[in-house]
Amino acid sequence: MPPPVPATASPDEARERSSEVILGFDAAKVMVRIGTLAEKHSGRDEAFRSAMAQLLKSELVHAREVAQTELLAERHGRRTAERLCALHDAIIRILYNAATWYLYRSPTPSDSERMSIVATGGYGRGLMAPESDIDLLFVLPYKQTAWGEQVAEVILYCLWDMGLKVGHATRTVSECIRHALGDMTIRTAILESRYLIGDLALYTELIERFDKEVVQGTASEFVAAKLAEREERLTRAGQSRYLVEPNIKDGKGGLRDLHTLFWIAKYVYRVRDTRELVKRNVFDAAEYRTFRRCEDFLWSVRCNMHFLTGRAEERLSFDIQREIAQRLGYTSHPGMQDVERFMKHYFMVARQVGGLTAILCAKLEEQEAKPAPMLNRVMERLRPHKRRGKIAGTEDFIVDNARINLAAPNVFKHDPVSLIRIFRLAQKNNLDFHPDAMRAVTRSLNLITPQVRENAEANRLFVEILTSPNAETVLRRMNETGVLGQFIRTFGKIVSMMQFNMYHHYTVDEHLIRCVGILQEIEAGTNEEFVLANDLFRKIRLDHRAALYMAVFLHDIAKGRPEDHSIAGAKAARRLCPRFGFNSADTELIAWLIREHLTMSTVAQSRDLSDRKTIENFAAVVQSVEQMKLLTILTTADIRGVGPGVWNGWKAQLLRTLYYETEPALTGGFSEVNRARRVDAALAEFRNAFTEWPEADVEAYLGRQYPAYWLKVELPQKIRHARFIKNADMSGKKIAIEVGFDESRAVTELTVLAPDHPWLLSIVAGACAANGANIVDAQIYTTTDGLALDTIAISREYDRNEDEARRAARIGELIEQVLEGKVRLPEVMARRTQSRAKTKVFVVEPEVVVNNQWSEVYTVIEVSGLDRPGLLYQLTTAISKLSLNIGSAHVATFGERVRDVFYVTDLMGAQITAPTRQAAIKRALVHLLSNADPTRGAA
What we know:
Elements: H1 11-16, E1 21-22, E2 25-26, H2 27-40, H3 45-74, H4 77-103, E3 116-119, H5 121-124, E4 134-140, H6 146-161, E5 166-172, H7 173-182, H8 184-191, E6 194-198, H9 200-215, H10 219-237, H11 255-269, H12 276-279, H13 285-309, H14 318-327, H15 338-366, H16 377-382, E7 388-390, E8 397-400, E9 403-406, H17 411-414, H18 418-428, E10 432-433, H19 435-443, H20 450-453, H21 456-467, H22 471-481, H23 483-487, H24 489-492, H25 508-524, H26 531-537, H27 545-554, H28 565-576, H29 584-595, H30 599-606, H31 612-622, H32 625-640, H33 649-668, H34 672-689, H35 695-702, H36 707-712, H37 715-731, E11 736-742, E12 747-755, H38 760-770, E13 775-782, E14 787-795, H39 801-819, H40 825-831, E15 847-851, E16 859-866, H41 871-881, E17 884-894, E18 897-906, H42 915-930
Helix pairs in contact: 2-3, 2-4, 3-4, 3-6, 4-6, 4-13, 7-8, 7-9, 10-11, 11-15, 13-14, 13-15, 14-15, 18-21, 18-22, 22-25, 25-27, 25-32, 26-32, 27-29, 28-29, 30-33, 31-33, 32-33, 38-39, 38-40, 38-41, 41-42
């Protein structure tokens, strides 16, 4: 930092103190040019200020270009942030010098004509992202004067004219202290303050009074407030640090967590630099290096994000992840894309930030700087009242402040199996983990050798952890310390691995751990979302319980490999399970569950469950009722573990239908009698639940739906449909549309009732696309009196339900106009906008399967490819143009990937058997999927 420049500094003195060249910005030369501008515009202050702002803006644009070039070459974000901060420092000093010399020079200033310009907040830390705000504090000795107000205005208006975002405050020293005492945000801003220019004595007075009157004796208050603030921030951003579109600044494990560490350290230990935390024995040298590595990486990502988007973008979304990865030099490897390798690194850094947070909290607790641990609130509710003492059955571990800790520093070296045992003891005794113990665990990972991995006691302890209460929390701590990946090397390969798609919300390891937690919910039977799975868990063989837990834990263990992960995962299970104590039969069962873990979901969502062939084929795969029970439970946990809103009542009902349709086929052959009984049971359930109509009306309505409807649709939706159809009948309209909102899935549901028509699905899909609505799934039924009842789920466009309802009304109007011949849909489609930019970052290889083995009546066409608005319309239009009748359609979207299945016949009602015609169908649909123009192929 240059020495302070007094308010009366001459331009020559200012140039001498501003000799540094930053990012091509030569402050001394700029001052000379500003002097020339001052002479040119002498006496015209407004013109001079405008010319000065334009000059500095031009220089700033060039400097930012240099900064981006250097960032791409060096890939060192922290250095870029430091340079950008120094650049803005230089600009502010130039503005101050110009204002106090050329505009409002005071040769003999009074004591009140003094000012200290101070950087606060993030700018005060000396690090600045390309699009970050500038936070300035103008410190005055007494009340505001005309001179101080004029100088501040020149600086602020010039910065605003340059296009910079500036936050500012003008206060006396006493006002700063008073506000800091009452507002923790202002206290934090002053804590990070940094002197820029002006009266140094004012800044010194501010810091001395701040330390004495605000900081002294208030460490516990500040720490508690900052940790509470962190909890609130993480709740807003998403508590998991393994979200696949993380917030680089405010998310868990992001830059704000590092800032919080530094705030607390500065406040409690009164340090000015993180290096000093090593001297204070808060971090050791290795941990400090980790701190700097994490900070450097996160700053590199953030600076690149700002430069790439041209705005203060903090969310690392899918549409920029790949380009950021390439900017940082990541390359693709077999089984992993460049973007997936980059995001794996990001999540490893986020986990390390979490470890540093725990270390600092432990140190603070030792010094009683905070009253109680704020870590692991799940364990807090479960732990016993005992605060200190021994743990029964072990001499190696103790209870320390209601958390497990080491009795001696050499516990793990003496017996490396204790690296697994500590987690089992904590789980068994409902203890949280002391950060010092976790620190020791992390430092002892090299003790987990092949001998430890094959140790019978270690593997027995692990299986107990996996199958005991609170397994999710304990497994997550094992993962965050590195034990899980070191003990199970195959698991280590998927730690922090993301899947570059819009379907999965979490990294692979986090998904597996969450699935174990969901399986425990199913076993407990406490969550009504999982009615079937809850019931089936009580009925599985007791000796299969551990095998089911292991299958859930391992089902995605082989993600990221070139080979299909289900097949590779089954092979990995055959290698691992004997080590965990499973016999050959259970090992094969686990391997089978992993190999088939996607089968039930695929069949339920993409096949006609009323088709006897579907059920027979599925029965041939599952082979026994016991295996189907286990697969149903695994499938439920897997879908629910993908992320919020993925599991819903419709999918639950499809799984129930598939299970109960297949059960008789496994116990004694497919039985129409048995199926009729289940239909009767569904009808009875509806009668009992729906009592608002006269009995005669109910009975008449029951006959309007085919048997398959009563088996596939969940009860609440059946009731909604009944009310909807009656209201439509009473209105006398040919077409009726009802709008619903599923906030858990962020979709709007359109239920369409219209006369059945061969092109109706195509028309509905086209009307949605023409209004910019992207279909994510569809449920399609036909009534016995010739009406189509279609429920279409579309992605939300608006936050307010009222706006979504108006969009739905426009879709309904268009459907009616097309059916009445008033509008030609292809013309409307030709005018619609192109597909969403977000899906353009993904590549999904188009695939079309034409199959006659999945149905005895229909040819089944399965289409898979990159989703885009209007795709369903294009597909149904193309199928109709191929002279095919669509008997039923099953529409599902998995993030950016669509899987649509159509049951079709030729115009005579027969299957498509000619190989040449099958090839033509496949060729036409693959061409359509590969063509990005939504209007091509439209009728």
